[in-house]
Structures are given as C-alpha cells and as structure tokens.
Design brief:
Blueprint (H helix, E strand, L loop, with lengths): L3 E7 L5 H9 L2 E8 L2 E9 H11 L5 E6 L2 E12 L6 E8 L6 E10 L3 H4 L3 E4 L3 E6 L8 E4 L8 E3 L18 E6 L4 H27 L1
Parallel strand pairs: 1-4, 2-6, 7-10
Antiparallel strand pairs: 1-3, 2-3, 4-5, 5-6, 7-9, 8-12, 11-12
Length: about 210
Amino acid sequence: MELIELSVAKRERTGKGAARKLRAANAIPGIVYGAKKEPVMVSVDVTTFDKVIRENGTTGLFFDLNIEGTGKSVMLKELQMDPFGLRYQHIDFHEIDMDAAVSIVVPVETEGVSAGVKEGGMLQIIRRELEVICKPKYAPESVKLDISELQIGDAIHVENIDLGPEIEIPFDTNFTVVTIVPPDTSSDEDEIEDDAEMGEVAEAAAETEEAAE
C-alpha cells in the first residue's frame, strides 16, 4: 500500500455559498476528521485531485496529506459528485493510525482464463468489490482471483479466498464472488419454440382447408 502525497489548503469559511465559490475557483471543499480531534476544513485543487483519481481510482486510497506544512496520514472516506457524476462536490478524509486496522473496499480482479470458459461457459463476476479489514500497510490494491482451474458450474465463494493472516474479509454468509455458468442456450430454445409454433399453425391451416373441401 502506497501513501499518495497530496497538498491541500485550510479554509475558514463554510456554507453553501463558500463551497460554490471554491468550486468556481477550481477547488473542491473537503474536511479531515480525526479521532478525538477537531475536524479541519480544507480545499483541494481539482486538477491535482483529478489526476490522482484517474491514476488510482476511488477505492482504498490512502494519502500523506500535507495541510500547509502539517502532515497527516488519511484515507479517502467519501467522495461526493454532482448528480451527473461530472464534478467533484465534496471530499471527506479520515485520519488514520497506521498501526490500527481499518475497513476498506477494494475491487475484485480475475487472473487467467477459466477451463470452463474455454469449453463455452461464461464467467460471471457476482461481487466486483469486497470489504477487507487490515492495517493500512497491508491494504491490497485489489483482490486477485485465479480462475484458470474453474470448470462450468464451479464457483469461488468468499470463504475460499485467503489473502494472508494480515487481511480479513468479513462476511456473515458464504456468498459467491465469481462463477462459471453454462453457455446461453436461450436463443436456440427460442428458435425451437418458434419452429414448433410455426408447425402447429401450418397444421391448423391444412386442417381448415380439408374441412372446407
């Protein structure tokens, strides 16, 4: 896990009007929460932050936050966007203890080509993200699953995933993460049904003609 360096500025004014002015000035209003500490209001340069998001995504991000000369280790807790998902509206950072476990959400990635897929099956990713609990230094960028041995009908459940002793995946039920399903035969079945219906119509028409004669 890498701490991303990010410099932010303190802000004194709060409220919707002040937030609109910040956004108009190409900045994002934000806040840094800390355990048993007063929140710190900050502003983040849009261009700088957007570059971070483009390179790293939005899940499981940890920052070495420089607040006008004061450093803080924080994680991205919440990122609010406008209704169209085009502009950043607000950022919540949460100060962390590097020696304490935190809960983060990371993406699921598959590795290899399933044996079942080679035979015509289809890969279904049921859970594209998983929650993990660990110290920040052990936080994975993603949960990588080797699917190369999976046959049609096989699945990887959450209890099958071992990320090592330092990382826990919390769960109450043993849910499916990925599975290989049989080929989609619905189109072939539809064609068979259509052919049968056409045959029935033709037979009915022939019977009608014979009765008329």
